[in-house]
Design goal:
GO terms for molecular function: catechol O-methyltransferase activity; O-methyltransferase activity. The protein is α/β, with parallel strands linked by helices. It has 12 helices and 9 strands. Helix 6 packs antiparallel against helix 8. The chain starts with 13 loop residues before the first helix and ends in a 6-residue tail after the last strand.
């Protein structure tokens, strides 16, 4: 009878776990090619061996010098002793310095882990042995938004931010659009927020005229695992939007726009809207960011959506992105369609 061998998983001792941690730390601490070729533990062994060697040589030189001072002075024994003492000091100092640097690296990693837990990028869990552990959360849409929010809060970047972003998401949930067109991708922040609540089968087409922000937005959208439903395109929205109806060699035509989000140059908002208007489906929602703080620059746009009769429009008040002390708002307009009767 054939008996298959079964591998038994033995519990790992505390000593073995500590040894493995130190081995992992060696890889984490390596910052240059030299660190990889000569790891810290190998350097400490070398310094310790050097210190021991210099100590033995110093004892031998000192013993000989004490036994026959005159002969040793003539042979330069005192110089040999001095050289070995200097070597002992240097090797011992290097060994001690490496140990201190190791403690600093451990403390730095501990500080980083605590900060990651506090910011939500690292989660705490209990392993099978009942030990409390932590690990980085996978990079997804929430991870990217947290990172962009920290960046935006630090440098006051012109993204929609968490407060207005939540309002924008609520509007997307209410309308459940199949096709969203965004003007002004920037870093992809608002597109990712809308993508989080996009209904199945929905798509977002986002325009960005600045090439460096186009690359950044594509990167963050890809890291957020939303490249399948967010298409960031390079170019002027006034020229790109009218072509959506016919499509191109690389993109399919759309049936119409259900949701339009404007977050680029305020002075061009009306141009964006007029370019998109022939493609708007009845009931389409148009959201214009910074309608509070840039109301003067948006005078023509606001007069049009509020007075043309084509839209039912209102402002939802909020605060400027990453500035709770500055009032702002979103102008939300619903397209009535071409039949105005």
């Amino acid at each position: 009878m054939k008996v298959e061998s079964v591998k038994v998983k033995r519990p790992i001792s505390a000593e073995e776990r500590e040894r493995r941690t130190k081995m992992e730390d060696e890889l984490k601490d390596a910052r240059t090619w030299f660190d990889y070729l000569v790891p810290r533990q190998l350097r400490r062994v070398y310094f310790a061996a050097g210190a021991v060697s210099c100590t033995v040589a110093s004892v031998i030189a000192l013993t000989k010098l004490l036994q026959n001072p005159a002969l040793q002075v003539e042979d330069g024994g005192q110089y040999n002793l001095a050289i070995n003492l200097v070597g002992l000091i240097l090797f011992a100092g290097a060994y001690t310095w490496e140990g201190a640097q190791a403690e600093k690296r451990v403390e730095r990693r501990r500080t980083i882990r605590e900060a990651q837990i506090r910011l939500g990028d690292r989660e705490v869990y209990v392993n099978k042995e009942g030990e409390k552990m932590s690990r980085l959360k996978p990079v997804d849409d929430n991870w990217i938004l947290r990172r962009l929010d920290r960046w935006g809060n630090k440098d006051k970047l012109p993204m929609i931010g968490p407060k207005k972003g939540a309002i924008l998401q609520g509007l997307v949930v209410q309308r459940a659009p199949q096709t969203i067109v965004e003007v002004g991708a920037f870093l992809g922040y608002s597109a990712i927020r809308m993508g989080q609540v996009l209904p199945p089968g929905g798509r977002i087409i986002s325009y960005e005229s600045d090439f460096k922000w186009l690359i950044a937005a594509k990167r963050f959208v890809w890291q957020a695992k939303m490249a399948d439903k967010i298409d960031v395109r390079w170019g002027r929205a006034q020229e790109g939007i009218p072509q959506l109806k016919t499509g191109s060699l690389f993109s399919k035509p759309i049936d119409g726009i259900d949701f339009l989000f404007l977050d680029a140059k305020p002075s061009e908002y009306l141009d964006y809207l007029l370019a998109a208007e022939p493609l708007l489906n009845p009931g389409a929602v148009i959201v214009a960011d910074n309608a509070g703080i840039f109301s003067k620059s948006l005078t023509e746009y606001l007069n049009y959506v509020r007075g043309s009769g084509r839209y039912k429009s209102e402002i939802i008040e909020s605060t400027l992105e990453y500035r709770d002390d500055v009032q702002d708002g979103l102008e939300v307009s619903t397209y009535k369609g071409t039949d105005l009767s």
